[in-house]
Amino acid sequence: MKTVIAVGLMLCGALSWAAAPAPQDEQMEARYRALTSELRCLVCQNESISDSHADLAKDLRNQVRAMMEAGKMDKEITDYLVARYGDFVLFRPRLKGLTAALWFGPFVLTGLGVLLLIYYVLRRRKGMSDAPLSGGEQDRLRSVLRGAEGENKG
Amino acid sequence: MRARSLIPLGIFATLVALLWAGLYLNPHEVPSPLIDKPAPEFTLPQLQDPARNIGSKDLLGKVTLLNVWASWCVACREEHPLLVALAKTGQVDVYGLNYKDTRQDALRWLDGLGNPYVVSAFDEQGNVGIDYGVYGVPETYVIDRAGIIRYKMIGPLTEDNLKNIVLPLVRKLQE
User: SS3 for B40?
Assistant: First the structure.
């Protein structure tokens, strides 16, 4: 009896395994979706080849799928496309000499802005001193105030 | 002090200049990574004679233009008379890559508008197009004797760019 149950359980296990979608396929599908949404369609430039209805996007999707089925790695597939269409096919361009400005430019500019701001703030603070006015400055202040009063009255 | 107050003006002027220049750039002209690289190899049936093949090897030994065209492509119709006129002058051999077309439509097109091509390759699936990084027909490649791509024109040839860019380059390569 025990053996019968055991065999039955094994069969169930095997059957349920066969019925569920093969996890490998699902993985493949997710990889395919991730990969094609990272690739720019050159015809309608702000769409990925995963979203685009352009003919070229369809062809490139097929090409990506064919290469995946042939066991190519993601890197090999993107290299293949970059070799033909240039870095522009990648929504996230690779870091290299030409693209360094794209990657670091904003940070460099922000840094420069912050430095400038600090510089100006410090300089302004230095300009404001609490030292008492000298004799000459006192006189000038008084005469200016007097002039202003006179103007107000007039 | 006065020079210093000019700095914001300078920054503003630079921005304006950059944005101004940007107005005249064509975002659809993506530089090809194939420039100065060997033209991708291919072998395809000829458009007019499916029994015979045409391949990248047939282009070696002379400077050639490889023009990607299709009967469904409106801009191709625009540049076609220029190609026909160019072929008549015999300055350079023009080869065609008929891209994602049907043979019948393509042949009818050549019958109606004239055939400037020494031979047209028939790329029904567009696979050779992918190898050449084609994304907007028409495109024209200038290929030197050794089979190296020297220039790629994206979009239709015009009298202006033919005279000022393509033909001077062809003559230089022919020397």
Answer: coil
Interface of A with B (CB under 8 A): 42-43, 45, 55-56, 59-60, 63, 82-88
Instruction: Give the CA angle between residues B22, B24, B30 to the nearest 5°.
Output: 80
What is residue B12's DSSP assignment? H
pLDDT of residue A147: 81
Dihedral, A105, A108, A109, A113 alpha carbons, nearest 10: 170
Tell me the pLDDT band of B142, cut-offs 50, 70 and 90: very high
ipTM for this model: 0.78
Q: What is the mean pLDDT of residues B27-31?
A: 79
Residues 6+ apart with CB under 8 A from B117: B67, B83, B87, B94, B95, B96, B110
A105-141 confidence digits (pLDDT tens): 999 999 999 999 999 898 888 777 677 778 888 888 8
**Ordered domains of chain B (ranges, CATH):** 31-174 (3.40.30.10)
pTM score over 0.80 = no
B133 neighbourhood in chain A, CB within 8 Å: 84-86
Q: Provide the CA A4 distance to its chain's centre, in angstroms.
A: 58
- B164 with B138: CB under 8 angstroms? no
B28/A86 Cβ within 8 A:
no
Where b means 16+ CB within 10 Å and e means fewer, B103-131 reads eeebbebbeeeebbbebbbbbbebebbbb
Q: What is the pLDDT of residue B14?
A: 94
Distance of residue B146 Cα from the nearest chain A Cα, in angstroms: 20
DSSP state of B22: H
pLDDT tens per residue, range A64-97: 999 999 988 999 999 999 999 988 889 888 888 7
Residue A48 forms beta bridges with which residues? Answer: A40
- How distant, in Å, are the alpha carbons of A46, A48, B20, B138, B148 from that of B96? 30, 30, 37, 10, 17
